[in-house]
Amino acid sequence: MNDELPLIIECRCNEIAYREDNPALPYSPKEIVREAVRAWEAGASIFHWHGRDPDSGKPRNEVELYLEVIQGIREQTDLLIHPTLGYITQNRVEDRVRHILAVNDDPVLRVDMVPVDFGSLNVDFWNPQAKQFNSYDQVYINTRENLRAVLEVFKEHNLYVSSVCWDVGQMRTARCFQQMGLLPQETLWEFVFTGEVMPAGAAATIPSLQAFMAEVPAGNQWLALCWNGDVMRVASWAITLGGHVGIGLGDYAYTRFGKPHNGELVEMVAKMAHTLGREVATPEQARKILKMPPRAAVQQELHATAN
User: Fold this and answer.
1) How far is CA 240 from CA 4, 9, 260, 262, in A?
2) Could you say which of 3.40.190.10, 3.20.20.70, 3.30.70.20, 1.10.10.10 is the CATH number of the domain covering 9-290?
3) Per residue in 90-146, pLDDT tens?
4) What 3-state DSSP class applies to 223?
5) CA distances (Å), 203 to each of 101, 207, 225, in order?
6) What keywords appear on the UniProt entry (predicted)?
């Protein structure tokens, strides 16, 4: 092995995907916890998920759905817990962060990191066979006022933020929020590449990756993922260039491998890293790489604040 930092693997287990292509995609809290354990055993150090209706899979934001997952993960793993925010269609910031703040004062259940998407984009899917978009009016709206409000809450509660960027302009926007003092100087930059059916995002190419990398402040870490596309080629570049990787059924069904579960996808990236001569980070190593305090220190700080 070389002297590079160990590779952080984030499992992105369900997002807003459905089971039509892969029945292993989890909906219920029990299924999500099962996937977290599988991912952790395979080498993941961060676990990201969305609250879903246990039967239909439709997006749901009830605090109880998140609490059950958080409790299950804490009981069985030492993963860094990274839930989504409440869906952007909810205009009230308190609705988006309710499940985060519900556990913020609990030294055991407190989440480790929270994601912020730094801009809006068109999310109509492209049909390459019909050469038409499936819709023409779908927009993921994420105003800078919303960003400001969410980041103020996270700053107040001392939460670690991952900066999710779908293009270079969103990275530049995020750096403006750093200058404002709302986005911490220590953040994990998550580069979102997109597949053929989502042309609004960055193409999974070396020039796109280089453009993202050029905007990363010195000393910060970055991670590459691919929404509605296969991340494997990007993963090889990220491993080689010192970045980190996100993978999971929430982003892509990976039917070329059959019907894999999330743990099997994480294992593929871990094996790729070992083949390329790079170690895979444990959750505790990931904390150090991301310059987070050790979990014991977080617990002690919360306990001292409570008293």
Assistant:
1) 9, 14, 25, 23
2) 3.20.20.70
3) 568 888 999 999 999 999 999 999 999 999 999 999 999 999 999 999 998 889 999
4) strand
5) 35, 9, 11
6) Metal-binding, Transferase, Zinc
